[in-house]
Amino acid sequence: MICNRAALAASDAHEIALDCIEAAVDAAAPAAATKSAVGRDSQTLTIGGTTYDLDEYSEVVVVGGGKAAGGVTRALESILGDTLSGGHVVVTQAIDTETVRSSVGDHPLPSDRNVAATTKMLKKVGEADEDTLVLFVLTGGASALLSAPAGDLTLDDLQTTTDRLLSGGVPIAEINAVRKHLSDLKGGQIARLAAPATVDGVLISDVVGNDLSTIGSGPSVPDETTYGDALDVFERYDLTPPPAVHDHLEAGQDGRLSETPFPDDSVFDRVTNHLIGDNATALDAAAAVARETGYEPLVLTSRLRGEAREVAKPLVAIAEEATATGTPVEPPAVLLAGGESTVTVTEKRGQGGPNQEFVLSGALAHDGDAVIAAVDTDGEDGSSDAAGAIATANIIDDRKRARDALLANDAGSYLSEIGATVETGPTGTNVNDVVVLVIPDPSE
């Protein structure tokens, strides 16, 4: 999985960190997650705790999108076989499917082909009737891939808005509050379009806390945010939306546009959503690998968030405390964390992303010999092709240059130069970031 693993495996501790990363990504693989949550016994389909009598439906279709949607779709095809009528999913990498059509889109910014692909997917949803079972697949990356500009908004309006929110360090839940109100499908609107069909959302989470309404901006989930909330995001982070976006949100706030459907809306009467994989799934697998190697694992959190270069510092401090006092865990040990940290771009955008900034900041701050690793489980960290990075404090050969790179949002360039980036390529899954700190036995 890690293409440059041989070059990165500088010590036993590095090997353990890399093993943990690979186990975490493997555990979050969409096919494995789907087959653990979805089963079929004759004509009874079970998803989570919900059962469906397939004889009651004239059609069963799969629609949706996201970075892991291809793997989920292939698994559903293998389970449903000839019962599956068709469908359409939007993905980032071409997939080989038998019944469901797929279109390749772009991420992290919406594009013309995203809009075209989403239009085809929505057409399929709109054809559903009360005798249709719609399996709506949603995974990380869907907010960009499933693009349907609302009203008179243009693709350029969506691209500019998304870029400003991402560059402004805005947390994903608040970004999605905006996205929901600039779209014809997000914020529960796929449920509105599909009604009166039966809809089952099959979701893999890439958001901290697994709020279903935030995953992919919640197309099949009730929305409790409003146009006013979306406007407040720009004010809170001192960002300026494009004029057309401001006018659209203001029109909604003034009641001139319909709100996204709230929890009590009847469009959700025949909608059920199931979470089949998340960051905790990945961390549990990494912990199991650490334990097998004789290291004591400690999962600190699956809700890591905040500015990447800042959240790294308390985590390396915990590693130092463990080395010095055996608290909160006795070395040799592995500290694990997951979630989604952010980067506020203060200079011209360089190379890298939050995981690379985390590792470089952690290595600069660390007073010890822990191995610090962090990756995005989708294999693409921020604006680079690297999944993340792995480093120790002593690998930093020029601290001033390293600090300058961090301040310039160019951690990726420096880490690449010293051979510390982790290369996986697209993994086909996405359950946010995984952080691994391997603390060697001080006596060795």
TrEMBL record:
InterPro entries: GK-like_C_sf, GK_N_sf, MOFRL, MOFRL_assoc_dom, MOFRL_protein. It comes from the Archaea. SUPFAM superfamilies: GckA/TtuD-like. Residues 18-250 form the MOFRL-associated domain. Residues 334-433 form the MOFRL domain. This is DUF4147 domain-containing protein. Coiled coil: none annotated.
